[in-house]
Amino acid sequence: MSQPVNTGVNNPLDEALQWFAGQPLDPQRVLWIMPRVEAAAEFKTRFQSVMAARAGQPDGPVLSPHIQTADRLSQPAAPTAWWALKAELVSILQGLPNLTGGLSLPQVWALAQEYLDLALRLTWVRASGPTRWAEYLQSNAFSAEEGQVVSRLADAFGDELERQIASPSIPPQALDQIVWLDDGEPLPGWWIERFFPEVPVKRLSLPMIEGPQAWVDWVHRRWVSGPAGPVAPPVVLHEAPDETAQAHQAAACIVNWLESTANDSGPGRSITVAVLDRLAARRLVALLAEVGVQVDDRTGWRLSTANVAGWMDALLRQWVEQGQIDLFRHPLTGEVKPDAQPWALHGDRTLAQWAQAVLDMLEHRGLLSDLLQDEAGRLVVQGWRQMRLLQADAQFSAAGLLAAWRHWAEQERFRPEDVRSPVRMVPLMSTRLRTLDHVLVLGCAASHFQESPPGLLPPAVAQELGFPGPRQARMQKLSALYELLNQAHVVSLVHCVQSAGKPESLLPELLWVGLLQQRFSYPGWQVVPNGQQVQVDACATEALALRALPDALSVPAQLSVTALDDFAACPLRFGLKHAMPWPRQRDEGLPSFPQLRGIFVHRVLEKAARQLQMPGVKVDDLQTWKTALQQQANAVWHGLTLEEQGLLHPFIAVFDRLIPRVAGQLMGRYLQGWRMDTAEARVDGALPLKQTGVDLPLSGRVDRLDRLGSHVSIVDIKFKPLPVLKKMAAEPLSAPQLPMYQALLKAPSAELMFLGIHTDDVAWVPMPPPTQEQSQQGQGNWGEVVWQTFAVELDAFFSAQADWQASPGDACTHCDAHWVCRPDSMLGTPE
């Protein structure tokens, strides 16, 4: 069995126990607050040793101390009452289309869950004293709309939320001391202030690591010990080129450890997998199962992933879709139950009534007893029995019951209890305060150490409610990794250099360790790349070079005018996207958010213009324009499908806020005499490619054509900031769409105009006329300039006489082919 690493750094838990050993305290009158439940289990073992040494009776009985874990203090005290609150809130939210428009029922349940979680935190702030509550109200009087909703929710459900704050099972008068091992979670402090204001508190803050110096010290402590040299095994970093190789490397590492410790017993054979990448964890579990190695998974999978939960979901879905359940399969064997009569209930009921009906149905068909024989099945039955006790009066349809069931199954955690394995998988944060032997850290990318605050509130407000901000959350994870590397004996880190085809950079702190190794020749840091596959960051050292196919085979049968923007930005991107073309990287079901946003705004502006051009409309009144825009926005919104509404929902609040500005800009242009003539006008033409020997068909749709007498204005609506639009207008060759429309429409005197709509900016941005030099060359308008320029450049592009070259820069943003063409290699390596 391997020996612990002598790092010279005390475990904070050891420090706490050393302090306690020197105090004349009765262990039965001390409350310990630990960061995570996994640390509590190890603490009990160490505590027993301390107490046995104090009593001088190594084999004598030792009473267990009182323990609370910080991650459990914020959980509701009564799950059934919490469910009743959610059910009532869901029924309220469903009646607020402006707040939940476009959300499905499961999404409404998730929204209610998040609102209540935030409101519970707000209740903690209020319960912590009038001063802190007054400070919160004063500093958040003008927070986001959702913040106001949460604040009002905390007021409306104040009594119910107050009852959900978990009170301790031990009375304050039964305690002489509280020992708090603080990992930066603020809620234990509020909890102590509320329930134990008079009890002395010994607070031991766990280290919070930030900056390079701590890592320099760690490297020196772990591997340098005077003339004796290194005193600890190396820390190995495995760099995998993709997700599959990552899983294989992690599995091979664990199998090798199991083989090397086959003759060990006890802690030496214990292997901990600290998980930061959940997808990689699932792949690892499947690979180990193939070689007969089970994993004791403590990461907390959702109950919805269990087979029995899937069976129940399918049963309820059949009922919702068909109106009855006429096919009953056994939840464990899958066999069809013979002679099972169809079951159906119609109408709306409370969740308690539905739950009773479902339990009766399972009992009547002999399925309830079978479910109770399975671990996941017992949780499913327990869930229905809890729902049966709900006191909520809200009525739900069958579809509403299915949504409630799915929400519960997503919230409930499930871990098979029959797995006994030396390989234990835990979240990284659960390794704190523990001495571990063999440790595999799964996921070491910089992105794994980034966290965002809750999505409903601004970061400052969320942090005031006790949620760690992005910086604090990153420090907590870094501190857990740092502590693990200090305490563990054998450590392997597994990093995947790309995920879903996109690069993943290694955690900067681990890069520092590699630089230290190179500078000082420390022998304890080993980087092991996969020898069977080429790494992403080592391949394609030269930029991708492609040419058009001969005989004009690369010329597309039809090209959209908007595609010319791609050519102006990056010829290689244009070729891969429109001439090869590059395989699509996403499903083509629903339109994308930018497409749907454009469709929405185009329809609203067109319909509003038609409405305002009707006889008798008072067009010099701004309120008339605002009303018309709002009416048409509502009409277009309600004409969208539910999925489209859900996708477009974030933009609707922005557009509603911008309606006065849009109305002002449109009315001002109307009073100048401009009238909308057509919208979404289709234009077609063919660009001659003389050297290539073909004509390139072009087509497009003009957003708006406005007229002022004999004058024409070609308008393109853009959702870009005003400075970007001004730059585009000043450089027409980099934004050729409007000039090409001018050429295809054969309207040399037409005005070219952008209408910019972006957050708080709504403005008309005209495209200036060509320079005097261009006019003297016979190119009197931008249509002629762009037509002639692209006729030459696209002819050379499709003639197969030159390579398609990448243009590194802004064009690489969101480009599907960016990490294949490797344009960054053209920039050279910095000194």
From TrEMBL:
Chain ranges of the PD-(D/E)XK endonuclease-like domain: 558-822
UniProt cross-references to InterPro entries, sorted A to Z: P-loop_NTPase, PDDEXK-like_dom_sf, PDDEXK_AddAB-type
Pfam families noted in UniProt: PDDEXK_1
Name this polypeptide is given: PD-(D/E)XK nuclease family protein
Source species of the chain: Limnobacter humi
Lineage: Bacteria, Pseudomonadati, Pseudomonadota, Betaproteobacteria, Burkholderiales
